[in-house]
Amino acid sequence: MRGLARLREAKIRILNFWDTANSRKVTEFAGNDEAHWKEYQRLRSSTGSPRVFRLNRGERNKYWNQDDSGGAGDGIHILAPTAELTDAANKADDPNAHSYALWLQYGDFKVVLGGDCDEAAWKSIWKKYGANLRCNILKASHHGRASGFHTEAVKAMNPEYTIVSVGKKTQHRCFKPIPPLYKGKSVVDAMAREYCSDDSRQRTCDDYAAV
User: Fold this and answer.
1) Helix count (H) and strand count (E) of the chain?
2) Same domain, 22 and 63
3) What is the pLDDT of residues 103-129, one digit of tens each?
4) For strand 185-190 and strand 75-80, is the pairing parallel, antiparallel, or unpaired?
5) Domain span at residue 28?
6) Which residue among 60, 85, 170, 198 sits deepest, i.e. has the most Cβ atoms within 10 Å of its Cβ?
7) Is the bond leading into 159 cis (omega within 30 degrees of zero)?
């Protein structure tokens, strides 16, 4: 959500705003996060422009996954959240568990964007779609953290490429380049990182290739 206030300052107009049914309340902020949080609250409370959508798995509409006549077509398909996942996320006060997971399809080419989905969300997705999750490219959840890794879902997706978008954030993490090829799987990786031995939360590119 960081950056929303900058979009407004740059006069970039948002026409459609995809939100979730989260009930999260934040009272403490770091840096200028409060400005972005307030802009988020302004956007999600809109009753005019932008149009606010709170979508769940499988929802269809023009023009994100239907054609002009309302038929199925290429586009954006929603894998998560579901009402059940949202309810659990609200009870746990876990913002990442509200995340969208999106399946982008163009012809036979498919890309899965994992957002910040956690293991519970991926388990739900895998149970629903199974082998039909097959995709060409996977954007790993939550910058590759172990909390967003579900072995069976990754096996079902069997991506040709896995993108792990990461950056330097805290001093206790080690950073080193990861080679682009692992066991026959190509991995596109921006500043790929591995954690120090005292931090087991990170899944490396090797983990995604190993399945």
Assistant:
1) 6, 9
2) no
3) 999 999 999 999 999 999 999 999 999
4) unpaired
5) 1-54
6) 85
7) no
Which of 17, 38, 54 is the last residue before a domain boundary?
A: 54
Angle at 143 between CA 201 and CA 153, to 5 degrees: 80
Whole-number pLDDT of residue 178: 37
Please list the ranges in the chain whose pLDDT falls under 50: 169-202
* pTM value > 0.70: yes
The answer to whether residues 96 and 189 belong to one domain is: yes
Give yes or no for a contact between 194 and 204, defined as CB atoms under 8 angstroms apart: yes
**How many other C-beta atoms lie within 10 A of the C-beta of residue 121?**
30
Asked if 47 and 61 sit in the same domain, the reply is no
pLDDT of residue 211: 63
Whole-number pLDDT of residue 21: 97
Number of structural domains (the chain) is: 2
Q: Are residues 17 and 120 in the same domain?
A: no
What pLDDT score was predicted for residue 73?
73
Looking at residue 196, its pLDDT comes to 32
Q: Tell me: do 49 and 123 sit in the same domain.
A: no
Same domain, 4 and 78: no
Do 108 and 205 share a domain, yes or no? yes
Longest dimension (CA), the chain: 55
Helical H segments across the chain, by residue range: 4-9, 33-44, 83-92, 119-129, 151-157, 205-210
Residues 33 and 117 reside in one and the same domain: no
